[in-house]
Structures are given as structure tokens and as C-alpha cells.
């Protein structure tokens, strides 16, 4: 079929799925070690919980720092090569973790290998996910950007959800080398699949924008994303402690309801971004998320906490693709990878800051306060998006006039 012809819905989904496998491999590699590595560092290597947490955080900060660069490389060399490099780095992280497990009797050597592997995984994550998303956008065209970003998100959260418990099982059966070997194997398989897949080239019709200009264009939408991400951060990180402080049971079910709201919203309403525009949809989503967080803060029993988590998940679900559509729309085809990487970095930054900032607030004002604070921040995000929407409509009316 010629590239310019309009594909059917089934063809669109097939094309997107053909590159989303790299996102799935990437985030399964991220999820597998999460529940196991801290215990290995603390109990087997003998380091403090702080060091164990630092080893985990190395990956997040590596992802944050490398996000913009991954987008620029994808624009310059094409998403296929960036995905291949990302798969190599993810695989290397697994190989280094295997060696670290074999060297566990030499604690410092093992720790340094783990740290290097986490850095490789963080950079591999940004390269693989950004490259795969841009590859999908090139395969189906800019008009389907929202669909590509939405499916990419589903692959991300599904892989993370199954990765952590599967990593625990593999660790019980085979030790650290169990999940680390799987990560190495997925990196190799992903590299081979990406190498054998045809690349898509976009003809250069305009010069690429400098990074400073891309950051200026994308940052309002990235800031809205960062504020919306806080709701996800405080639920994922602190919901278990919140339930414990209230004397409640069922935190796992509340997390499941959050995930259910997220996934259902992605599948049922992602088409609304194309129909109504990213700003309108993200505004409604942020309001829904804020209501959910307010319910969590004010919940007097588990039922209301569950409803709040469900609404928070449903609301946050479309914030990333809705604002992402608007962000990449502001740049030319030659700079979309840079825009996507820069935009995604705001999510990484928000997740990286949520833990320590919420922890400080919790120590000062109690754990309930973090949900009120997150709700207020999400409301500020809604105000920001509302302002962008008003500005956009005024510009549209001015253009018509």
C-alpha cells in the first residue's frame, strides 16, 4: 500500500503495534528489578536503605537527562537507529546485573556494576520509548499522533504492572540472574527485530529547530503534564502508607482501581483528542483527576478512597497524549522527536521530585496533606491548560478575522 494512502483502522493498529513492542520490552526491563533490587542491595550486599534507593533512582535521573538528547538523535539519525541503541543499552543493563549478582561477595564491585547497569537502563528507556513513539508517528502520520501516544502509554503501564511481580517470581526461582537474564535476552531480541524492520525517512523540508526554541514551544504543555503527573506519583508511591495510617485494608485493590480507570479511559476516550482537541480533553481530564484527589484526601472510608483513585486514574490517563499532541504540533516534522523527548522529560522530572517533596510535606503536615497538595497542583495545571485554550481560541478567531 502506498505510504500516502489512508490506512484502515486495523492497518493503523497493526503498524503501531509493530513498534510498540520495543516500548513493551523497554518498560518490562524497567519493571522487573523494581521490587527485587532494593532488597538485594540492602540485605545481600549490606548497604543502607538510602543506597538501595539511590541505586533505583539512578535510572530515573538517567532517563530525565537523556530524554531531550534521545529526541534530537531520533530526528537526526531516524527513530530506528535510536530504538536499536536503546535496546542494546537495556540488554547491557541486564548483562551487568547478572555479573553484579555473580560478584555479590565483592560488595562494592557488585554495587558499581548495578549502578552502571541502572544508568544504561535509564538511557535505554529514553531512547527506546522516544524512538518507538516517533517511529509509530512516522508510520501512521501526524494526524494519528494521539493514537500512537495513547498506545505507547498502554504498553508502558501494562509492562510496568506485570514486570514487578514477575521479577519477584523469577528472583524466587533463579535469583537475581533470573530477571536480569530476561532483560538481556529482550534487549537482544529487540535489537534483531528493530534491525530487520524497515525504517521510515521523513523528507527534510525545513531546518531543525534549535533545542532552546523547542523547549520554549513545548514547556507550557510539559508544565501542565508535570502538574498532572503529581496525582499519579502520590498514589503509586504513598497509597499503601496512607491506608496504613488510616487503619484501612485493601490498598492493593485501590491501586488496581486506579489502573483500571487509567486503562479504560485510554481505550474508551482516546479518540476524543482528535475530535475535540488536546487542550479541551486535557482540561476535562485534569479537573477529573483533581476531583479524585480531593476525594482521596477527604475520604472517610475505603469506598470513597477507591472512588477517588478510580477518578484519578481515569483523569490522568489522557493528560499525556492530549497535551503531547499539542506539544508536537507546535514544531515541524524534522523536530518532532526533539519535542517529544523534551515533553516527556517533564513527566520524568515530576516523578523524580514527587517522592522527596511529598516525603518532606508528609513529615511536616501528615500523610493526608500530600493528596490535598497534589489536588491543588493539578488544579493549577487545569488553570494553565484553560489559559492555553483561551489563548488558542483567540488566535484562531484572530486568524479567521
TrEMBL record:
Pfam families xref list: MFS_1
Superkingdom field: Bacteria
Membrane spanning stretches: 12-35, 41-61, 82-102, 108-127, 148-167, 173-194, 214-242, 248-269, 276-297, 303-325, 337-358, 370-390
CDD domains linked to this entry: MFS_YfcJ_like (cd17489)
Cross-referenced SUPFAM superfamilies: MFS general substrate transporter
Matching InterPro entries: MFS, MFS_dom, MFS_trans_sf, MFS_Transporters, MFS_YhhS-like
Record's protein name: Uncharacterized MFS-type transporter HH682_08445
Species name: Rosenbergiella gaditana
